[in-house]
Amino acid sequence: MLIAEDLLLLSYDDESGRPTFDGTRIEYSLAGALLIELSLLGKVAVAGPGEDVKRDRLVVRDSSPVGDDVLDHALAELADDEGKKPKNVLGQLRKGTRDRLLRRLADRGLLREESGKVLGIFPTVRWPADDASHEAAVRQRLHDVLVTGLEPDPRTAALASLLLAVDGVHKVVPSDDRRAVKRRAKEISDGAWAADAVKKAVQEVQAAVTAAIVAGSTAAVAGGSS
């Protein structure tokens, strides 16, 4: 299972099959998850001083296929974008990723695709859980790390950091002390669990989501005043 797949399972309600937070947050977090996974695999990184690629820009260390169609598609996209700022590749990575992963999770029997219509006119698709056992295990690991205080493995740390970046921690890991859970997630995100490239990816997800939300709000205000 990819980090992005775990994140997507956490982003949908098991019974209603609908997302628990908005599409902008989900899609940018998935793009960040792909970038993080490829970073953890040593495929991509953020350039340091003295490299051919400008410092703090995306560099591809190894373009050979991973063997996973979603990761390999992302890696090919990033190979074309080498030298760009990490935040400038997230928009391309997010395109189509959610749909591809939802269908793959359905093919694996973890989700169930249910088509319908709103008001009998507008088509809609829901993705309720068909087998929630894997998701439950992921949620338990997150609870153990964020509430109980256990040390995270890199995958759980990545999930906690991405959820923090899109303000989704409290929706995935409910607690009587939301501030403490969020503080713990920030400690993990700021910690020494991953290389600079991975941390940079998390920061870029947060920046991209914030920018997208601000742009959407500005457009809505402009539309309402016209």
From TrEMBL:
UniProt cross-references to InterPro entries, sorted A to Z: GPP34-like, GPP34-like_sf
Cross-referenced Pfam families: GPP34
Listed GO CC annotations: cytosol; endomembrane system
Domain of life: Bacteria
Cellular location(s): Golgi apparatus membrane
Gene3D superfamilies for the chain: yeast vps74-n-term truncation variant domain like (1.10.3630.10)
Assigned keywords, A-Z: Golgi apparatus, Lipid-binding, Membrane
Topological type in the membrane: Peripheral membrane protein
Gene Ontology biological process terms in this record: Golgi organization; Golgi to plasma membrane protein transport; Golgi vesicle budding; retrograde vesicle-mediated transport, Golgi to endoplasmic reticulum
GO molecular function, one term: phosphatidylinositol-4-phosphate binding
Listed name of the protein: GPP34 family phosphoprotein
Annotated organism of origin: Jiangella ureilytica
